[in-house]
Specification:
Blueprint (H helix, E strand, L loop, with lengths): L1 H16 L10 H12 L2 H33 L28 H15 L3 E4 L6 H4 L18 E2 L5 E2 L7 H13 L4 E10 L11 E11 L4 H16 L5 E6 L4 E10 L13 E10 L1 H6 L8 E8 H9 L6 H4 L2 H5 L3
Parallel strand pairs: 1-4
Antiparallel strand pairs: 2-3, 4-5, 5-9, 6-7, 7-8, 8-9
The chain binds 3,4-dihydroxyphenylalanine.
The site of 3,4-dihydroxyphenylalanine (DAH) has 12 residues, from strand 7, strand 8 and strand 9.
């Protein structure tokens, strides 16, 4: 038995320094060790055989380790398909065949379903846009300071990574004009990525998602808008909610409002200290925005709203930091798998 240990140690040292480690397995000392089995009395064979097997396994893994060491020393190309050190043993990773939907994807589907059931058409917003749609068609006068509030990323060619989904409003209005003229109404929700060049913290991320709603008819009212938004939030959180609005300024609506819900007890709200959570901006579409799309503001009126998707989801699941969403951290993603 002692012999096995000694020979084993020697061979492992040899393997670790060899350029052709597999050849070491052909060593005559090993053959001798295997041969001993036959010569042993049957009572000892099992124990000896077990030790030999353990030795074989140890040698095999020493050979594998040395082979990959040699391989990585000679292969210079980078294997971008291997996300971890292949020699460091099994990792606690998601298997590719068990991948899961990102929590935002799931929740965006959820939001889309609710608006679809309410009769809205749901579209995806663009991820590259221009000054005309980001500001011009939305009644931001040239050089108006409100433009600075959006911290927009711009390309050298003058394109804009949209800082809000309101960039879709003019397109929605233009596309829907015919419907209005034939006696119908426009009801569209645009959901997608937005980007802002601002300092990052637990509630600010450079990349995030918004949901924009646009409704136009001959008779649209602020009351309909509040009813629509309340119904949406109650459907999303599965309970009745208290809502509150306060005046706010956005160049593309008049009047403009901030829409808040009271934090419900089931999501950590306290009945003593009311907590109002501002969820989105909204208002009656400014006549200039309708005119920019060729719609007569004397004949038609509309309402619009826009708000962050992450904020909705963070409240629903008690997520404390918006940066988790873009982090790619498996620990976070697994909680929603
Ligand atoms: N686009 C605004 C923002 O991101 C939010 C907003 C406010 C959208 C009022 C609207 C609206 O459609 O009517 O700050």
């Amino acid at each position: 038995m002692q012999n096995i240990d000694e020979i084993g140690k020697q061979l492992i040292t040899q393997i670790a320094g060899s350029d052709s480690p597999r050849d070491v397995l052909k060593a005559p000392e090993l053959k001798q060790l295997y041969g001993v089995i036959k010569t042993l009395p049957s009572g000892q064979r099992a124990v000896y055989g077990k030790r030999i097997n353990e030795l074989k396994i140890a040698l095999e893994s020493a050979v594998n380790a040395r082979e990959s060491e040699l391989e990585s020393a000679t292969v210079e190309s980078l294997d971008i398909t291997a996300p971890w050190d292949v020699n460091s043993g099994p990792q606690n990773l998601l298997l590719t065949e068990n991948g899961s939907q990102h929590p935002l994807t799931k929740e965006i589907e959820n939001v889309s379903d609710i608006f679809t059931r309410m009769g809205f058409e749901v579209i995806e917003s663009r991820q590259i846009d221009d000054d005309h749609h980001m500001f011009g068609t939305l009644n931001f006068p040239d050089n108006h300071p409100a433009r600075d509030g959006y911290d927009t990323f711009r390309t050298e060619e003058g394109f804009i990574a949209p800082a809000h989904t309101s960039t879709m409003q003019n397109r929605i209005l233009q596309d829907g004009k015919k419907k209005l003229e034939s006696g119908g109404q426009i009801g569209v929700v645009a959901i997608g990525r937005c980007f802002r060049n601002e300092d990052l913290d637990a509630t600010h991320e450079h990349t995030f998602h918004q949901c924009e709603g646009v409704f136009v008819s001959e008779t649209a009212t602020l009351g309909q808008m509040l009813g629509t938004l309340r119904s949406f939030f109650e459907a999303y959180y599965g309970q009745s909610l208290n809502i509150r609005t306060q005046p706010s300024y956005f160049p593309f609506v008049e009047p403009g409002l901030e829409f808040a819900i009271e934090k419900p007890a089931s999501l950590g709200g306290s009945s003593k200290d009311k907590e109002w959570l501002e969820m989105l901006g909204c208002g009656m579409i400014h006549p200039n925005v309708l005119i920019a799309a060729g719609i007569d503001p004397k004949k038609y009126r509309g309402f619009a709203w826009g708000g962050g998707i992450e904020r909705l989801v963070m409240l629903k699941y008690g997520i404390e930091d918006i940066r988790h969403f873009e982090s790619g951290k498996l620990q976070f993603l697994r909680e929603f798998a």
